[in-house]
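A quick aside before the break. I want you to see a complete sequence-to-structure record at least once, exactly as it would be stored in a machine-readable document. Don't worry about memorizing anything.
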Amino acid sequence: MAKKVEYSVEDKLRALYDLQLVHSRIDKLRNVRGELPLEVQDLEDEISGLTVRLEKINNEIKDLENLIKEKLNKIEESKAMIKKYNEQQKNVRNNRAFESLSKEIEYQELEIEYSEKQINELKAQIEQKGDSLSEITELKNNRNGHLKHKKDELDAIMKETEKEESSLIKKSTEFESKIDESLLNSYKKIRSSVRNGLAVVPVERGASAGSFFVIPPQVQLDIASRKKLITDEHSGRILVDKDLAEEEGLKMEGIFSSI
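That is the input. The structure line, written in tokens, reads:
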């Protein structure tokens, strides 16, 4: 049976800080590509909306064109009626019948004039919608080009970061093995409760990193002795001394550069 390795408090502090550096780097990788999928999704949603607008305008133009056809048919019907009434006028035997036919002819001529006016108005609407169609099509083409660029960028980042992230996750497992379960759970709990994911921070200028609360001198000495785990009473973060942080930072930079 393999003997369980016992780690000193300093070993645990170093492992915790190393783990924090690994997790911070993973967070950074995910944040970089995490914004891109949202941008891609926003562009896809916008393009989808533009496609719906284009379809709607095309349908409206078709409806207007059908109305023009109806008006043209009505004009042809009115012309046919005028021709019919003109023929009938040649055979009437009294002025009353002639005048009645003349009024019918005049009415059909007014119908033709009104239909032509409507056709011109419909054509103007089609032209206006055609302008909108061109503008939206240009905007959609522009967004499609932007989307392709963002997707290419995201694909490149995914290829670049997936390998590094996978290696970092393996490295984090290695550091976790040096930390007992209860301490590791405490670390994860702290990390999930703070905005920037920093559960282990160094003491800088007499305060924990990112904090304005001064740590008493005696507590600073206890932290520097690395004999026990000390947390910031204000944020709950685990504290390490500046020298340890710098040493582990340099070590981890070498590991990161080799991944």
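Two observations worth writing down. The mean pLDDT is 92. The beta strands are 200-204, 207-208, 230-231, 238-240. We'll return to this after the break.
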